[in-house]
């Protein structure tokens, strides 16, 4: 497993959170989606992606 930089969106992240791969729900903090192509959609943060984990908590509120 390669070391993933969680501050930078992956290419798959850009597809999931266009145009730049950051979760749109935060004004101050930009959370990058680090999902890979094999990741479930939605993955709910199971891969360690903070953006998708935050999406899940948004949906539960
Ligand atoms: Zn993600
Ligand atoms: Zn993921």
């Amino acid at each position: 497993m390669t070391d993933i930089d969680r501050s930078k969106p992956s290419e798959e992240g850009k597809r999931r959170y266009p145009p730049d791969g950051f979760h749109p729900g935060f004004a101050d903090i930009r959370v990058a989606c680090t999902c890979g192509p094999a990741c479930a959609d939605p993955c709910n943060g199971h891969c360690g992606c903070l953006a998708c984990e935050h999406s899940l908590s948004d949906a539960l509120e």
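Residues 13, 16, 33, 35, 43, 49, 51-52 surround zinc ion (ligand 1) (CB under 6 Å). The first strand starts at residue 22 and ends at 23.
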